[in-house]
Amino acid sequence: MGMFDWLTGKKSTNNAQPVSGGDAWRTIHEPTMGAWQRNEEIEISKNDQMRHHAIFACVSLITRDIGKLKLKTKKKSEGVWQEHASRMNALMNKPNHYQNTQQFFEAWATSKATSGNTYVWKIRNLYGQLWRLVVLDPERVKVLVDNEGNVFYQVRRERLFDLDEDLMIPASEIIHDRFNCFYHHLVGLSPITACALSAAQGISIQRNAQAFFANASRPSGILVTPGSISPEKSKEMSKQWNENYSGTGTGKTAVLGDGVTYVPVSVAANDAQLVEQLKLSGEIVCTAFGVPAFKIGLAPLPGGKVSDHNDIYYSDCLQHYIESIETLLNDHLELEEGVEAEFCLDALLRMDAGSQMDYLDKGVKGAILSPNEARAKLGYMPVAGGESPMIQQQNFSLAAIAKRDTSEDPFSKTPVPAEADDQPQGDGDDLGNA
């Protein structure tokens, strides 16, 4: 193995075996009773899944909210985490040559939400230092394990990374973010696995509705005659009707004789509960992704404050994505000792104007925030004298109260006289003036 192979992470592994279990959601089995015995399947492609409005909305919402968060490096100083400059700040500001920070984390979250796995390749320079971070296409990555239990990742060629041939990369050079590892510890599952049937149902409903309205909202039907007709006559009538009064012929006037009548046979939307079934398919998708239905317009906005709604969304859905990224970056970015990467949640958990003012007012009155810190939260410039927290004079520390209680008369309001000055006063008036 050459020096270049070591820098790029290329390994030679002839005994590594692939790990299976990551593509379960792409095929839904058993479309009808006994279909598995006839080897019949419903093939649902990734593109079809993303055409469902609820899946698209959930994935888009998660990725956009992850992408708008700012990543900061912090270090604990005197027991408090403070912002600290790190040598990795430049890398995170521009992870690679074709993405900025927002696009990079959006790609990270998209890969995890749609495939259950995110593979980030750590590319190093000639000095062995981290140079670029690129999010790999999960469909072009295969997880391998050799006989000794070492993990490798086989990456197929990709022009975007100037990768002309398949590459075997050790686990130390890949950031692998995964969740829902129900079948194998190295293979995650997307929430689409749990809602693929509902998504297929919703897509079928929408396609059926599209075909119905494309036919000028006229249902399909049959031609009924009062007497019997020959098979040849039946085929002729059906052919002429389809050619003249369906498709582009919709809207023409048909003249029927000999008691022939047209009877619609399509099930009405009300009878099929089309709207209810379409809404149900979307709600099941929201349940699988952990996204509140009101966030994508499938339910009315509940009562309460905006901050309460955001807290529900954060704790039920986004918190896992955010903390997982933070943990993996701290493990792989080779930060300085004591320095950690953390997302700033201010852009996500924004409060309404009234709640924010109440929050800052209580912080200043409680001597937790200084006036200038509160003004900075609102985007205002600092003022003179506002750099220190403020508190009213009648508040005493517990140590002062304990000292007061040890006196002979703790409830006395008479102040303790100060000790006399050692210097003699001059002979003057009663005020001590010489």
Q: Can you put this structure into words, describing what you see?
A:
With 434 residues, this protein is of the alpha+beta class. The protein folds into three domains: 10-216 and 267-350, no CATH class; 220-265; 353-407, no CATH class. Helix content is 37%, strand content 16%. The protein contains 13 helices and 14 strands. The chain has helices at 3-8, 46-50, 53-67, 89-93, 101-115, 192-214, 231-245, 269-272, 274-289, 306-332, 353-365, 371-377, 398-405; strands spanning 17-18, 27-29, 41-43, 70-77, 80-83, 117-124, 130-136, 141-145, 151-155, 167-170, 174-178, 221-224, 261-264, 339-344. The strands form five sheets. A four-stranded antiparallel β-sheet has the order 1-8-9-10, with no helix packed on it. It has a three-stranded antiparallel β-sheet with strand order 5-4-14. A hairpin with a 5-residue loop joins β6 and β7 (130-136). α6 runs antiparallel to α9. Residues 22-31 have low confidence and may be disordered.
The profile of the biggest β sheet is:
4 strands, antiparallel
Low-confidence stretches: 22-31
Q: Give me the strand/helix succession.
A: HEEEHHEEHHEEEEEEHEHEHHHEHHH
Our count of helices gives 13
Mean pLDDT: 81
**Number of domain units:** 3
Q: What Rg is obtained from the alpha carbons, in whole angstroms? A: 35 Å
Give the number of DSSP strands.
14
Q: Give the DSSP E fraction (strand runs of 2 or more residues).
A: 15-25%
Shape: flat
Instruction: State the end-to-end distance.
Output: 96 Å
Query: Roughly how much helix do the residues carry, as a percent range?
Result: 25-40%
Structural class: alpha+beta
- Major sheet: arrangement of strands: 1-8-9-10
